[in-house]
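queue> pop job 88
queue> type: inverse folding (structure -> sequence)
queue> payload:
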């Protein structure tokens, strides 16, 4: 471990004490732990009660408790992933305020946990379904089958295993990278098991888009944090801002306020982005086990359903016009599913999609509102809507089609109506994930904090370095949330700290940088192999 006790210096005639290591070993008092477990128990009871209320509202008679047992196990694993994500990633948000003595470690952790909680509650949900769209469409359509459960269990357990392994080694690896790799592994394994080319099991366009976000965000964090520090040095000439902490003393009030504000911003942004990664998977679990309650958004108001009909008729005309001269006999779903899986337009693509859109419109029209869809039909209606939405998404991106701007606008409006009916997150799911992520910040944070605070640079973190890294991290993660892209809090913030060290001429500990780069490079392939192996195993068990 690097010794950060610098030589004493004279500033204004007064000796400055060497910056000291913060106290990271002070535990939580018994009352805090009682509160911790109380919130955990209350959260689980709230989840169970919410599911009971939702299922009861549909009027479904419970004939078997096996689906609910699977649901309980799957939810525990999904919330466990968010819990691990909390102490694995959020340590990055508190490292700067702890090592600048802006906040005591135990208070900083609870503060960060609270704002992670708020970040999840106010998240948009865009990232959640961006993650889900990477999964093979046939598994999403059959999420209630054995293969669907194998998929969910494999990718979640693989992500948890890798996160715990890197946490144990004190490596700030990316939970986002891990989850994306797990999803790709399931997709490849599923395609190979079905006798197809492994590359056909993943939406590589979406995977590439997400990979760019994951790849470029740390480089962006490094460069922007370094530039911000240099700009600060040019504009703000106060020497106190660029000094390491004076012994155990807290920084001046204005600096302390900036550091706490940036820590708060990173914590909130982390919750709003990373918290969503488990939400989409929890929704898949709910759709697979209790589709009557969660396959369709039964809370959608009648006005939105009426608009759905208008958009449906307009979209059907556009699609039918593109398929003019061709007709299909029988079920349109196989042709549409093939297009979504392979992204190759055939002569049956447009006419099959036109029939499917027409059938979806007829179903909704006959029921009047989504909450009146019969229990035995809700799963099929949801699958038809999801399939039509994905087909339209790919058609609008496909360079082979000849859609004009008006056509795209019409299809976009219809896709928005489909997504409003199928891609929703109940409030209780947000609250459960928020509790899991928030409580996770209070456990096991020390390993990653030590790495970020002591093992990246060769000198003690200064106030300006901490603020610059946190500001860039908060802005980057917040922007990614707006665009529905998952980014890694870990990579953005740790690379931001490294950028400030480089810009300040403080020097970098290359052993740590090498380990971080290895974790960055190895996370995807290791997560892919882990999840693919687990998917094959679980496919034999379910």
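queue> result:
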């Amino acid at each position: 471990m690097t010794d950060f006790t610098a030589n004493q210096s004279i500033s204004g005639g007064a000796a400055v004490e060497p910056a000291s290591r913060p106290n990271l070993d002070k535990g939580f008092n018994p009352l805090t732990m009682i509160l911790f477990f109380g919130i955990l128990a209350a959260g689980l009871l709230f989840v169970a009660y919410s599911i009971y209320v939702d299922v009861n509202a549909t009027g479904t008679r419970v004939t078997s408790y096996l689906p609910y047992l699977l649901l309980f196990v799957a939810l525990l694993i999904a919330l466990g992933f968010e819990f691990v994500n909390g102490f694995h990633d959020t340590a990055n948000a508190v490292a700067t305020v702890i090592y600048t003595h802006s906040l005591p470690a135990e208070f900083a952790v609870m503060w960060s946990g609270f704002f992670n909680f708020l970040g999840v509650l106010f998240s948009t949900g865009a990232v959640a379904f961006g993650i889900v769209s990477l999964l093979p469409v046939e598994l999403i359509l059959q999420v209630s089958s054995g293969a669907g459960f194998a998929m969910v269990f494999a990718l979640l357990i693989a992500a948890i295993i890798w996160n715990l392994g890197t946490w144990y080694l004190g490596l700030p690896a990316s939970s986002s990278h891990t989850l994306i790799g797990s999803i790709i592994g399931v997709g490849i394994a599923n395609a190979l098991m079905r006798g197809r080319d492994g590359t056909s099991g993943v939406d590589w366009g979406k995977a590439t888009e997400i990979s760019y976000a994951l790849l470029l965000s740390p480089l962006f964090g490094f460069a922007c944090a370094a530039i911000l520090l240099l700009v600060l040095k040019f504009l703000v000439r106060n020497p106190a801002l660029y000094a390491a902490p004076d012994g155990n003393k807290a920084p001046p009030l204005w600096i302390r306020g900036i550091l706490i504000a940036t820590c708060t911003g990173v914590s909130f942004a982390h919750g709003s982005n990373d918290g969503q990664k488990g939400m989409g998977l929890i929704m898949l679990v709910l759709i697979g086990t209790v589709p009557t309650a969660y396959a369709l958004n039964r809370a959608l108001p009648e006005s939105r359903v009426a608009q759905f009909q208008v958009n449906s008729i307009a979209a059907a005309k556009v699609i039918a016009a593109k398929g003019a001269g061709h007709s299909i006999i029988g079920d349109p779903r196989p042709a549409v599913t093939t297009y979504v899986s392979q992204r190759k337009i055939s002569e049956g693509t447009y006419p099959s999609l036109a029939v499917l859109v027409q059938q979806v419109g007829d179903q909704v029209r006959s029921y009047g509102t989504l909450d009146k869809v019969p229990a035995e039909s809700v799963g099929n209606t949801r699958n038809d809507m999801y399939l039509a939405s994905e087909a339209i998404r790919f058609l609008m991106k496909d360079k082979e089609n000849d859609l004009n701007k008006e056509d795209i606008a019409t299809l976009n409006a219809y896709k928005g109506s489909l997504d409003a009916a199928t891609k929703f997150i109940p409030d209780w799911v947000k609250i459960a994930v928020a509790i899991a992520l928030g409580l996770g910040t209070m456990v096991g944070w020390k390993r990653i904090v030590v790495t970020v605070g002591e093992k990246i640079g060769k000198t003690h973190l200064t106030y300006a370095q901490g603020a610059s890294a946190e500001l860039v991290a908060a802005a980057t993660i917040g922007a990614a949330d707006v665009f529905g892209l998952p980014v890694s809090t870990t990579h953005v913030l740790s690379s931001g700290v490294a950028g400030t060290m480089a810009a300040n001429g403080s020097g970098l500990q290359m052993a740590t940088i090498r380990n971080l780069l290895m974790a960055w490079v190895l996370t995807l392939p290791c997560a892919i192999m882990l999840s693919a192996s687990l998917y094959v195993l679980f496919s034999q068990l379910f």
